[in-house]
Write a structure and sequence with these properties.
single chain, 82 residues, alpha+beta, five-stranded antiparallel beta sheet, 18% helix
C-alpha cells in the first residue's frame, strides 16, 4: 500500500480552483507524482493510463493509483477518502 503525506482538503480545494480556471465540470483532476502537482483532468479513469502513486480528485472522492509500474501503468484505483 502506498502512503502519502498530504491534506485531502487541500487537494479538494486545489482541484476546485483548477476546474474553475479551466472551465471544467465533473471528472477528475489528476495529481502526479505522489499527489503533489496537477498534471491534468480526465472525464473517466483508466488505471493503466496513470503511474502508480497518481491521485485523481473527483467531486466527492479521492483515489490513488496502485499496483503496476511506470511503464505499463497502474493496476487499480483505491479510494482514500477520510
Amino acid at each position: 500500500m502506498v502512503t502519502f503525506d498530504f491534506d485531502l482538503a487541500s487537494l479538494a480545494q486545489r482541484s476546485a480552483e483548477y476546474r474553475k480556471e479551466q472551465g471544467l465540470q465533473g471528472g477528475y483532476v489528476i495529481f502526479e507524482p505522489q499527489c503533489k502537482e496537477i498534471t491534468g483532468w480526465s472525464k473517466e479513469l483508466r488505471a493503466e493510463a496513470y503511474v502508480p502513486g497518481a491521485c485523481a480528485v473527483g467531486l466527492t472522492d479521492v483515489l490513488v493509483a496502485e499496483g503496476g509500474n511506470s511503464y505499463d501503468g497502474a493496476k487499480t484505483w483505491r479510494t482514500i477518502n477520510d
